[in-house]
């Protein structure tokens, strides 16, 4: 458990906010990604090296995205040859994607292609030249609320590009297994809890959910017709360091503070039921909106820490089942107020919250039954919400130069992870009562 720091119930002034929230991480480095022409020779070299060392060659789409980055980093650490593909689109602040690309490069991954999954020729070239043995497809148009505003972006990215990928794999090598991202959103209006893969799911509440369900249907078709190996992974509310800003981002960008030139993207916890991203709103002393059910009950989410998701994704890729679907959740739904409390404790500030009824597209509760993944993938979620929010805040405080609560001291393990994954040096010695960030 986090120690609850003294709450400083003070709203920060606007000027202070701008200063505090300026990204401290350096501008995108020389390397981020390259056009295919320049990486193709390295792709061939990678394929050569992988084959002489009997390594897998894994194509990770959306490698500069949140789940894609963490998956690619872990695969690389485990010795697989990783080819990344990402279009670096501007759905949210591209600086975060460039930072992820830079961190992959720092880790030694030299094959991140800037391109689109809807580009069939590009895909076939990568699959052939890189002699890709496994595909992990994580590129997608994410976000529940945005699908109300930009429906066709979802059809394009989540349906057309998905079919393009399957066609490319079919054209090059039918035996290459594909693990792809689905979502807890496929459960939609389902009221049976916990959510099980055996439940019939045909009542999605958002177009986002419907496109993800259609991926599962399309997967069935390609398996049936061409024997492609396809595993769908239903992610439950993934959060963690260098995460992605969710839908609330768009509501927030319209607000004055985000028009400031150096102001940051909103914080990256995927919390569609909060209109403002909680830690920023809390920092700014702004009001956060907690959505409630009609009877006043709180919404609950099965928040799942990124490393648990990555373990599940990699296990599914290695299993290479003929046709499967797995829930990847934490199996511990938490109230939104619990999340807010964890953030308040870390920041040492109290949230200013207000309530509003649940909005269209959102659902009151998500709760994963992960027994199927436990059995076949040995999946076991390990990170509690408290521990995961700690790790998120440690990254966040460095990136935006935000002070954490005075007694918020990273453990040796946390400090090590910050260094290895995110190139953040934390001096664990106390200087006065403040942490020193080198
Ligand atoms: C096709 O993919 C499978 C699975 O990765 C691999 O074992 C096989 O060698 C590939 N075949 C060719 C011709 O590359
Ligand atoms: C909470 O937010 C509202 C709206 O922004 C503001 O008027 C009010 O003063 C805030 N209260 C505190 C205690 O910061």
From TrEMBL:
Residues 1-20 form the signal peptide. The keyword NAD applies. InterPro entries: NAD(P)-bd_dom, NAD(P)-bd_dom_sf. Transmembrane segments: none annotated. Pfam families: GDP_Man_Dehyd (PF16363). The keyword Signal applies. Keywords: NAD, Signal. Residues 59-243 form the NAD(P)-binding domain. PANTHER family: EPIMERASE-RELATED. Belongs to the NAD(P)-dependent epimerase/dehydratase family. This is NAD(P)-binding domain-containing protein.
């Amino acid at each position: 458990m986090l120690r609850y720091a003294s709450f400083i119930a003070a709203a920060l002034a606007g000027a202070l906010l701008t200063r505090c929230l300026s990204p401290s991480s350096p501008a995108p480095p020389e390397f981020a990604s390259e056009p295919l022409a320049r990486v193709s020779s390295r792709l061939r070299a990678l394929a050569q090296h992988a084959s002489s060392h009997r390594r897998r060659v894994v194509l990770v789409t959306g490698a500069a995205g949140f789940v894609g980055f963490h998956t690619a980093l872990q695969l690389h650490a485990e010795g697989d040859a990783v080819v990344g593909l990402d279009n670096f689109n501007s759905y949210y602040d591209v600086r975060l994607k460039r930072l992820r690309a830079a961190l992959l490069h720092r880790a030694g991954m030299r094959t991140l292609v800037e391109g689109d999954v809807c580009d069939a020729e590009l895909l076939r070239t990568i699959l052939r030249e890189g002699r890709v043995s496994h595909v992990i497809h994580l590129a997608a148009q994410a976000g529940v609320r945005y699908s109300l505003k930009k429906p066709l972006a979802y059809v394009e990215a989540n349906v057309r590009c998905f079919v393009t990928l399957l066609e490319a794999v079919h054209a090059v090598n039918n035996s290459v297994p594909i693990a792809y991202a689905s979502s807890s959103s496929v459960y939609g209006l389902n009221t049976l809890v916990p959510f099980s893969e055996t439940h019939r799911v045909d009542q999605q509440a958002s177009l986002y959910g419907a496109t993800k369900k259609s991926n599962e249907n399309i997967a069935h078709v390609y398996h049936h017709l061409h024997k492609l190996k396809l595993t769908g992974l239903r992610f439950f509310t993934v959060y963690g360091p260098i995460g992605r800003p969710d839908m609330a981002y768009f509501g927030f960008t319209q607000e004055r503070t985000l028009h400031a030139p150096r102001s940051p993207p909103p914080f990256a916890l995927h919390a569609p039921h909060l209109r403002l991203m909680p830690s920023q709103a809390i920092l700014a002393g702004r009001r956060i909106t907690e959505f409630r059910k009609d009877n006043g009950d709180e919404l609950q989410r099965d928040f799942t820490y990124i490393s648990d998701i990555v373990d599940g994704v990699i296990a599914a890729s290695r299993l290479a089942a003929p046709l499967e679907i797995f829930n990847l959740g934490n199996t511990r739904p938490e109230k939104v107020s619990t999340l807010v409390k964890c953030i308040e404790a870390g920041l040492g500030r109290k949230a200013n919250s207000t309530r509003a009824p649940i909005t269209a597209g959102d659902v009151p509760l998500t709760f994963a039954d992960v027994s199927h993944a436990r059995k076949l993938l040995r999946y076991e979620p390990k990170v509690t919400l408290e521990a995961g929010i700690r790790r998120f805040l440690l990254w966040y405080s460095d990136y935006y130069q935000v002070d954490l609560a005075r007694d918020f001291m990273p453990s040796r393990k946390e400090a090590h992870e910050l260094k290895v994954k995110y190139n953040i040096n934390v001096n664990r010695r106390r200087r006065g009562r403040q942490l020193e960030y080198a």
